[in-house]
Amino acid sequence: MARGLYVGLAGMDIIYYSDNYPKKNEKSTVTQYSIFTGGPAANAAITNSILGGESTVLTSIGKSVLGDAIKKDLRSFGVKVLDLSEGIDIQPFISAIMVNPDDGSRSIWSGQRSFNDITEPDYESLKEFDYCLCDCYMHPHSAKILERISKTGMEVVLDVDYYSSTIWDYLPRSTFVFFSKQVESESQGSIEGYCKDSISIRGLAVSNDSNPIKWTDFKNRTEGVLEIPPCKSIDTLGAGDILHGAFCHYFYEKELSFRDSLKKASEVASMSTTEFGTRKGVQNFISQFP
């Protein structure tokens, strides 16, 4: 079994489902809401685990009641946790999210602290993993981690969840790069151009909500677009994270091609949007397509 190391955020998401955006000084009451572990790396790791893979999250959670709940939730899905802030009295990352069930769109308020309370990982133990996914958070610590593990020959799947100038500290250590059209347009060309000229990056995928995924397999010199399977979306939260985790599963565990791994991953991500939250839709996929 391929052992996956997922480096980045693991926090708590508080989700409210409503089509009524509160006005200033207005209280809005909803009857549908959820609380569960979120974060790009955590969602990808859980997805891989649900699909049958082996996942470990390398993250910063710390010591708190909420932190304990996050770890318990991750472990309930079979995800192992390496907490670089173990025993430190800090609050975890918490996001408040409003999802419109009519079209699945969402608004996110993400509470993020600094990364001052992080210790060095045991790099020797990280050699046991077969691949790494990194969401570019926990900077500069995650960049240093990638620099160390990439020297061992471990392949890195990079999730460019948002654009920052720090992305250029990650791209040279990457094997596969994922980003969405939401990344600033002036940065898209720079990232794509870098990937095209790189001798280490083997593949690039650019997603665009429910629109086709543009992909390039640099190693095999092929490219194309993948249509997203049609569905009735009611919650698109975490769909990109689920795409990345499913890709890792099908590429490293099932050993499918880059294109075919993306195709299967897009099917999982698409079905994930048909249920509230980031878990049930993936579990439904497994029950229908074991």
Describe this structure in words.
With 290 residues, the chain is an alpha/beta fold. It has one domain (3-24, 31-288): Ribokinase (UDP-N-acetylmuramoyl-L-alanine:D-glutamate ligase, 3-Layer(aba) Sandwich), CATH 3.40.1190. The protein is built from 8 helices and 13 strands. It has helices at 40-50, 65-76, 123-126, 141-150, 185-197, 239-253, 258-272, 280-288, and strands at residues 3-7, 11-17, 33-38, 54-59, 80-83, 94-99, 106-111, 131-134, 155-160, 176-180, 203-208, 211-217, 222-226. It has a 9-stranded mixed sheet with strand order 5-4-1-8-9-10-11-12-13, with helices on both faces. A 4-stranded mixed sheet has the order 3-2-6-7. Strand 8, helix 4 (141-150) and strand 9 (155-160) form a beta-alpha-beta unit. The longest helix is centred in the C-terminal third of the chain and has 15 residues, at 239-253. It is globular. The mean pLDDT is 91.
Distance between the termini: 17 Å
CATH topology: UDP-N-acetylmuramoyl-L-alanine:D-glutamate ligase
* Order of strands, widest sheet: 5-4-1-8-9-10-11-12-13
Give the uncertain stretches in residue-range form: none
H and E string: EEEHEHEEEHEHEEHEEEHHH
The CATH class name reads Alpha Beta
Residues in helix, %: 25-40%
Secondary-structure map:
Elements: E1 3-7, E2 11-17, E3 33-38, H1 40-50, E4 54-59, H2 65-76, E5 80-83, E6 94-99, E7 106-111, H3 123-126, E8 131-134, H4 141-150, E9 155-160, E10 176-180, H5 185-197, E11 203-208, E12 211-217, E13 222-226, H6 239-253, H7 258-272, H8 280-288
Parallel strand pairs: 1-4, 1-8, 2-6, 4-5, 8-9, 9-10, 10-11
Antiparallel strand pairs: 2-3, 6-7, 11-12, 12-13
Helix pairs in contact: 1-6, 6-7, 7-8
